[in-house]
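Hi team,

Below is the intake form for PRM1A protein from Cochlearius cochlearius. Please confirm the fields before the structure is written into the shared record.

FORM ID: S-0412
PROTEIN: PRM1A protein
ORGANISM: Cochlearius cochlearius
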Amino acid sequence: PLGLKESVLPTQRSSLSNAGGNFFMAGVGFSFIFSWLLMLLVLITFVLGGNTYMIVCESWRSQQLFQLLDTPGLIPGFNLSELLGQEGGTTNFSEMYRQCQRDAALWQTLHLDQSTSLDEVLNISKQYTGEISVGFEKMNITLSPISLLNQSQRDLLLNASRAAQPPDFTPTLEQLDHNMTQRSLLDLAAELEQLADKEGTDVKENLKADAHSLRELDKEMQMSFSGPLQSLKESIRLVQSGAAQLEAQTKAALDKASETQEFLKREMVNIIKNETWAFLEELLGFFETYISWAKTRLMEDVARCKPIAQTLNNVETITCDYILDSLNAFWFSLGWCTFFLLPSIILAVRLAKFYRRMDIADVY
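The structure came back. Fields below:
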């Protein structure tokens, strides 16, 4: 437009205007020469980007890709269930992907319990209890003779129980029940008073004074010694009753000692075996608890596969949202360029004659 002047005849147009017209025609020529390359590039990128996006990305988001992978016979000779040693064939890629998204363990995801039974592998009771029982049945326990009391000790105890018999306290108790003294002080005081009635005045007063002193002494003795005497009599009776039973109790204790010795001699081996077996059962219980814990951890916690699902999701995001989207935007832009190439050719051809210098001027 800078070199084009409306009042100038077509045969006298400037070189600048003529160059513009030549560039229009050169563009048309280059378009015819190289447009097939542009079309081919658009076609290739469209086929690769568009089909890959539909086949991979769309089918991934709709889970159709996993359903396709789960189709039997898709890959000749490949069977995931047989590869994992499963007879039922319940493992597939769709289920594995969903399990991994829930952060399940590989044991649950791959259904390894169908190919390997942890109960059989980790069953120590089945493997070792039978051997332990047979070993216990064959075990022979030999103990040295157990003697609680030998014969000399028995005789010593019997002799001691017989020698411990106290003397007969019956006369003493009878005397204590009647009087604390050998004769009654009150009787003696009465005799002194009878004797005072027969004697003279001087002796009479002395005898009555002595009788009064004896009565006071008897009263004081009754008040002072009644309690201790009662305790003494009870102690004497208790000693007599206990001493009477001492020999019988000693014989009963010796009989029980003999029974205990016979029981230990007869049952000690079985007692040792039973207690040892109870201890081993407790140890086996500890091992079973540990194995149960280990089995639970292996089935539920070990090797969680959520990172695998996240990795696949990241690969899908990078491939679809970054690479394929950019590729599709590229061929889409080139496609529009190719689409507008035909109108640009027509427009360039139509405009060229208004810019180029003409050899013959048209007559209007």
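SUMMARY LINE: The chain has 13 helices and no strands.

Thanks, M.
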